[in-house]
Model the fold of this input.
Amino acid sequence: GKELSSRNSLTYFTDEMKDTSRDHFEIEMNLRKGLELNQFTLYYQPQIKASTGMVSGFEALVRWNHPEIGLVAPDVFIPLAESTGFIVPLGEWIIEQSIRKMSELEQTGAENIMISVNISPRQFIHENLPEMIFRTLALYNVAPSRLCLEITESVAMEENTLVIERLNLFSEKGIRLSIDDFGTGFSAFVYLQDYPVHEIKIDREFIKVLTDNKKSKALVKTIIDLAGNLELSVIAEGVETPAQLDLLRELGCDYFQGYLISRPLPSDELEKWMNQFEY
Ligand code: C2E
Ligand code: MG
Ligand code: MG
Ligand code: MG
Done:
């Protein structure tokens, strides 16, 4: 598959984005045009159940296929999309594509596979989000229980009635809720005790150093135990080495994803990858 654009072009792009509000405006115009011209694309990274080695699902990850720069990573444009509101139409496109891909996977016989979609804070509180999600699930005949929404702690921590109502609504309808990048923010994880959250996702920063020292191991063990005590699932992201995986297993981690298994895959390579995948 294609790689993300080179560091040079990314740096060029990022520098440009840091510039002035006029540049921001221009880039936002380009983002909007990019959506019209179909320049966005979703990649999918497999998630694996640690106890069985079976594929449990895929995380949808967006890229911008810019005509001059090439494939642009989401870290570069999602923050801008979030601050300008462009994340709302882009997010709707992402949700629709992911759910459609899920219905395609089901038609090829893949059973009990989940699709995880990242939802940014502004997107999460947008008034149309629940209706849009339910309508799209119905349109493609996909059960809500096949969809997992990855939200960040900054969303979950907000003592906001809208947020709580939404979490409850999604949960009642059977949609799974995962806390992405767990432990990297200002973790006031008191929200875990009464929010309908189903999964904690351990951030790659913890996994990177997991096998380096005792303290890193203790931290990850603490997160996994916390999830277990609260009867939540726990998934590790950014697993790159067999040593990391062995340790995560030993600590009781339920699911994992990372380059060790696969990089995020272009949409049209998923089925082939699933057929070839051996644990
Ligand atoms: P995230 O949701 O925490 O996604 C995990 C990131 O880690 C992804 O980067 C993924 O490609 C990368 N990754 C996975 N396994 C490994 C590994 O083993 N090693 C390393 N070094 N990296 C790994 P990506 O795709 O560049 O996405 C970055 C962030 O952009 C995501 O972090 C998420 O916050 C955001 N993002 C991506 N797609 C979307 C989207 O569709 N909507 C929204 N709102 N945000 C998105
Ligand atoms: Mg994520
Ligand atoms: Mg994450
Ligand atoms: Mg992350």
The pocket of magnesium ion (ligand 4) is lined by residues 181, 203-204 (CB under 6 Å).
